[in-house]
Design a protein that fits this description.
Strand content: under 5%
Shape: elongated
Oligomer: single chain
Radius of gyration: 17 Å
Largest sheet: none
Structural class: mainly alpha
Length: 171
């Protein structure tokens, strides 16, 4: 509804801010913010940052805030990279690219560096492959080195992703 830009959606979206599911609240808040009602949206998204991994929607909240130009959820995303659950790490990898425009000297935000680290050492091949894919479109010069290293990964699926992305970068 927020992407459609329809201001009539405001009442329904505001109602969804009180939903019992964290993911519904986060998506409603992001839609409201995109329609121009940031105050209420920011409060909901900030509250959701303290959720529990997997059960709540704090990574979605961090992503939504980053899409709105707010980097306050970056720490929660990088915390998730240390989770014992591959699903949490994968969700964090998916969220990191939206922080790229917020990164820079002195910000303490380095999503590409985090993705390079994940691609090189996460124990799960699917997470390593997701990290390669997530960093590929960033234009960061560190991506080329990460792809070279990934082409020697122990997992054939990761190597295939690195080969495909390397061919795409060369074109």
């Amino acid at each position: 509804m927020g992407l459609a830009g329809d201001p009539r959606a405001r009442l329904a979206l505001e109602g969804a801010l009180g939903d019992g599911e964290a993911r519904v609240r986060v998506e409603a808040a992001l839609a409201l913010a995109r329609l121009g009602w940031r105050d209420r949206a920011d409060a909901v998204l900030t509250d959701e940052l303290v959720g529990e991994f997997f059960r709540d929607a704090h990574l979605r909240a961090a992503r939504a805030l980053a899409l709105l130009g707010d980097d306050s959820g970056y720490g929660r995303v990088t915390d998730a990279l240390a989770s014992a659950l591959a699903s949490n790490r994968a969700e964090a990898v998916a969220a990191l690219p939206v922080f790229v425009p917020l990164a820079g000297p002195g910000t303490g935000i380095d999503p590409v560096g985090a993705l390079v680290a994940v691609a090189g050492r996460d124990p799960e091949p699917i997470v390593r492959g997701d990290a390669l894919t997530a960093m590929a479109g960033t234009g960061d010069p560190r991506v080329a080195d990460a792809l070279v290293r990934a082409r020697r990964d122990a997992d054939p699926g990761v190597r295939a992703i690195a080969e495909r992305l390397s061919r795409g970068a060369a074109e």
